[in-house]
């Protein structure tokens, strides 16, 4: 060991170090890891730098190390200097690193213990590898300086490929051991207690218990007062411990899995936990990635690997990852070199930015070059990659956090009432304290002699005439106050919080178990991911729904196409003659079970394609289908065997298309049905089987789809060496970049005509609810191509603002396109959606649809799911400037007599914008659809329109608001929010189309921030995540688009129509149950407290309890708790059939009928009189009698228990066996406990 | 609040190793398809129809009124003589009653004459009644040590007994304020010049004698301090036989209470006179407490107490009244069961 010192590598940098050596006494956190090893064995070396060694000492102790047998002074000093030379730079890096590491992994101890093991391995491997490595110490050192001076703010992470020692020379990267567990055996007790006491309730318990330990305040016996706290702590600790043990077990399994790691020149098996950053790992097919790795090479000569990211985002389709061509060659020569600079670990699993330096060449690395921990390798024999993030720093681990906890509406009301109760508590305590003061004042003179008070000692000796337990009037009053707080503590129903948790668990159990919310098609049942907001489901007033995948199935079917101005596919619907339809499903069905591959083929189009490649139309069709097949990210996977595509794939159905977007899949499948089969796709080329003839297209560049451009393009070189850019995209973004002139620079009327007819087709597609895409292409001249190529290369290797630069490059080629055609893809509605929406609306819930689709598509979906009905008046707002939007909103409001919150201001604005706002009422045009006319906002740029259906009495007519994302930009960002709010809230239906994910959240926030109404957002895709998180209740659909939405949601389910049952039935029940339970708990505790309070008024305000200590402890713990929970879980006011049949019953929750201030005060008055009866009936019965305090106490205990249980029994709506057992059982248990308590000799009322 | 991490367990319990675990449909159906999980257990849903409500009120009235009448009758049968003597037994020339009572040199014997208002059947219970004496005061209630009282070997166990804990460093048995302040007035009765013997045995709870006060625990150092609180105890008699102490130590629940002094097994005739000779030792003057001597017969209900009977009668009467009122309402203005007009959203048509 001693001969191998990884740090010698950088010792060449020591030449310039002596100057720095003069000032070593800095608090050197930065380099301590380099030095502590030496420090622990030969600290004498550091005589000249005491402070430094002191700083290292503690670290050094924590890291036991193998010492070099002989460590000569010079070398250690040298080491120190070299490390020191990087001091300034590392300091900041390391500090932040340290902090972060501490946050990620809880236990500092574990962290420390892990480091040495990974280091040892590293040292061993590096010793053998050393000869293979070219000397690059010097470069390295200077490189460091460069890096930090130029890109300090980026703070990159440096990974030396196959050089874990150097990569980890500062131990800044965590090892690959993961620890999801929170505790170890030693830390369990303190840490668990610490975490538990984060809950305010427990602190309250603790304070009360602590108060009770003070001698003048000891109301309860010491054990009795600690019992509730200890009980709760114990139970929670057991639960936490069990959960943690399970985590330990799974961690252990995980950490002890093995992977092939390059050691001593070849791949040898190594446990996952010993893998560290910088190591080269080989993964075979169907194995799981142990850490986040940058691909270096794969079994595929082109460096392609297919992975399944099921564990990460839930998507079951295969994704392609590429190794850079440069590294593939490197791997084939078995030389592993290079330095990867990548960003610091982060949670974003969809982005990765890094560069690799190899042979003085900078290679850009992106998302497609990294494979993440948890993914599985599929269809690829092996891959080799270098570990960049390990263990806790992997993206999967960083993402494995619990969703944030929300608190329910009811709970916040409850907290408000808890404040009232606190006030009440303070009042009662003050009454007691005041009474105490008055009583003491009246009896001041006699206090010494009162036989039942006795202020002074009257013994001979030391204590004679001293006060006993008397601290002066003021303090006595204060103590009396505190004692009453101890006695009346349960006025604040701490137990309620625990009860609520239990009830919610029970409610969740029933929601999860509901077979009517079990989606048998996907096998997914209802999930409760958040346990705190069950009852909010009963109070939802606004539902914000995504369209695609939520209302619709997200199973795309290619329905129609418009090619070169001719419409195909629509005839299918008219003449559904089987002879016209050729389904390719027959052949492919055996391979592909999904119905989405079944498509209908238009005979005319097929006939056109059979013609020889001649004529404009035929060529356009050719290019059209080539674009469909080429311009996408779909991967053809041969379902039979390996994706080795050298051999002929003759059968049609042998290829399964794996893609991230269902639209693209549908298009590719359609293309293949028309004879344009995508056969092979690599980074470099695409092979398409055109009617049996293979065409190889070289891919020169690919601009991926982004939400700004809303299009995707691919630059390909055809076999005949022509370069073409193939583009597909949303119509708004495409129609503006089509060419208007022909090659001669003249206005191309023919093309314009094609555009016009295509636009007509597009609008008719949209009105049928189809999703549309526009296809275009362009030949690139050599100049255009080279200019683009230059920009593209530069952009794709850029570390900063890569996406913006790529966008600029894309803009170079995505212009002056020739229109080829358009496609219409159908997205079918899910089962039961119209019925569900109908019921929800009857229930008084406003359903808003927020979609990224076009206005027309959105409207047609709105119609088909009965959101929009024929009798509705629709207000359409699509303005393209702030002023326009303002006037549109104002006009709409004026037209429909919507009162605004700030009317005065509105009038002024109306006057101001009077001339600007030209209301274009377009009733005439709106004839066909019965709702409104269609306009393509993208083309008619200056189109401002409020389309309002005039109606003789639109005052009581239902309104629908349709607004597009463009207008929302102006409205949400300016001060028009309140206008929109006024308008939108007076509409029955709101449809927002063309909205970006963040806008969705903005709309939710619009409602959430302005009303107290509860909002629910439901969606299935990553674009809905922001909305789901913003809304009070987020519901995720386990759909086609992965698990992002589900991970962010509070509840997740298989289909939209379950929402009806979830809200109308479970929401209603949960709300009613929880509301009643809260009121009942307030009642239960208040009755008890008031009963005690009345008694204290008759004990000279001395805070005596007639009840035994244990009875008061058991009251809320045993005597009355079970029925509360049982009723909170099981009671039903109405059957689910009734609730579904009369959706209006849901409005009870909307009107806060289950729980409100009035009910609270009524309950409190109820409490008051019941407690008076409860106390004074026994009081008057046994006043002036021989009744002793403990008998009386027992009487009161039993009385109060029977009273509250009978009260509950009278409020129970539906008795089942369990309810009976709970209520009568509780009363029986009370008797039993009383008997037990009385027969145990240590209690005061024993006997 | 307690955070139960169910969601965490099911979704991402084991970090990266978590897989989307889906049980097979067969297991699921078996697990899910039960009446319990579908919340469709056979249930009984009581609906408060007018008939039900009226019958319940009638029933309660029918039960309560007789009980009330019986209680009142029983209470009226009890003959009770209450004689307050705290003022009367201090000579009228004494101005400072407190000084008078605290002066142990003055004889405090006092003679009272009681007239029997009605025939009294034996056993006649003799009680003393104290007013405004807070035996339920927290400092007082706790000032005892049950272990010491029960167990001779725990004689030195005197926690909680302050300030009557030790005398000269020796533990007081029985310690504490309660024992220290044991009532010490004594009564002797004469009936028509004959001595009327009082049976002072078996006046305490048997369980107290058997279990709470040891038969081998003898008073020690009791009432030897400078301030005498009340009764002194004979050090040769074990605590279990000191019944006055046992009675006293079963602290009263309320500030006005009676404690059993003894029983007289003689029938008394109406207009008989009873002469009571009493030692007025106990100091209630420091807190304006009243002292009374009570002779009372008993019935199945216990002592004299009109309250309970009145309470039953009131509640029963109220139930009858409500039953009557509801019947009227039902006959005059009947309501259809399940009338939608009374649903909350129909009542206030304004909506939310």
Automatic annotation (TrEMBL), chain A:
It holds the Pfam family PhoLip_ATPase_N. Its main location: membrane. Residues 1-29, 117-143 are annotated as: Disordered. Residues 1046-1242 form the P-type ATPase C-terminal domain. Belongs to the cation transport ATPase (P-type) (TC 3.A.3) family. Type IV subfamily. Its cofactor is Mg(2+). Its EC number is 7.6.2.1. The chain crosses the membrane at residues 419-441, 477-498, 1082-1101, 1113-1130, 1159-1177, 1189-1208, 1215-1237. GO terms for cellular component: endoplasmic reticulum; plasma membrane. It is a multi-pass membrane protein. Residues 159-224 form the P-type ATPase N-terminal domain. It is found in: Membrane. This is Phospholipid-transporting ATPase. Keywords: ATP-binding, Magnesium, Membrane, Metal-binding, Nucleotide-binding, Translocase, Transmembrane, Transmembrane helix. Residues 1-17 have a biased composition (Low complexity). ATP binds at residues 546-548, 664, 705, 728, 771, 851-853, 994, 1000, 1023-1024. GO terms for biological process: phospholipid translocation. InterPro entries: ATPase_P-typ_cyto_dom_N, ATPase_P-typ_P_site, ATPase_P-typ_TM_dom_sf, ATPase_P-typ_transduc_dom_A_sf, HAD-like_sf, HAD_sf, P-type_ATPase_IV, P-type_ATPase_N. Mg(2+) binds at residues 546, 548, 1020, 1024. It comes from the Eukaryota. The active site is at 546 (4-aspartylphosphate intermediate). One of its GO terms (molecular function) is ATP binding. It is an enzyme of class 7 (translocase). SUPFAM superfamilies: Calcium ATPase, transduction domain A, Calcium ATPase, transmembrane domain M, HAD-like, Metal cation-transporting ATPase, ATP-binding domain N.
From TrEMBL, chain B:
It is a multi-pass membrane protein. Its main location: membrane. This is ALA-interacting subunit. InterPro entries: CDC50/LEM3_fam. Belongs to the CDC50/LEM3 family. The lineage of its organism: Eukaryota, Viridiplantae, Streptophyta, Embryophyta, Tracheophyta. It is found in: Membrane. Signal peptide: none annotated. Keywords: Membrane, Transmembrane, Transmembrane helix. GO terms for cellular component: endoplasmic reticulum; Golgi apparatus; plasma membrane. The chain crosses the membrane at residues 52-74, 310-332. It comes from Aegilops tauschii subsp. strangulata (Goatgrass).
